Amino acid sequence: MGWQDRQYDQGNGGGHIGGDGGGGLGSRMGGKSVVTWLLIINVVVFLIDQILTSGARVPRWMSPYFMGRFTVDEAVFGFQVWRVFTYQFLHADFMHILFNMIGLYFFGPLMEQWWGSRRFLAFYLLCGLGGLLPYTLFTFVAPGIVQPNLQPEFARYIGLVGASGAIYGVLIGCAVCFPKQEIRLIFPPIPMKMRTMAFVFLGLSLLSVFAGTPNAGGDLAHLGGALLGFVLIRTSRVLNFADRLNPQAIQDGVNKGRYERKVKREETGRA
What we know:
The protein contains 13 helices and three strands, in the order βαααααααααββαααα. It is mainly alpha-helical and 271 residues long. The chain starts with a strand and ends with a helix.
């Protein structure tokens, strides 16, 4: 899919552009946008995983895929909480990462300009977390939907990887903020409004869940990311915390704390 002329500010029907989309956090990341860094990290992690596992250079269980994937058994029952983030940067195969990165490449810059770099990063990661909510819930209440081809008791061991939840959140964000923006799909090569495309993709995911396809669990994550993306767009103040995630401000706070402790120790010594 491709933007017509890549003009992000045409036909958006209103809205605003975030304050630090071109600077702030981005200026501390080598001048690259958050979208660029997300693309780089996802591709590098995928290549490392493929290199390590091809030819059995390391045991499969030691690969980034198995050490970072999300399963209810490991992340919830095993308290391996890092998996709620690491799973977002892992992909099952080339086509999986290809389509996710295409979506991030085309839609991510629009949302990063809308939010600003800090808020966009928070929005992206939170949408990825949102994808886990229905996946985890259905693992407990309807495990046959998560993995139709296995016995229900095995659903908690099924691994989930991919940036799709975050990408669907970004897609829905674009549909809400720029509903009339016209895009042209790669296949089929037809133009459609952003809002229409979002409905199409959501409809396909819903159909997959109800039809019990092999990837129904992944489509639950798509829907969860989309839902949280919609909520965050409508309650944007939730992301105010991201504005305070300034690396320099954090370092200033650490330095201030050290200075105050030093003064306190000196005063105690004089007493």
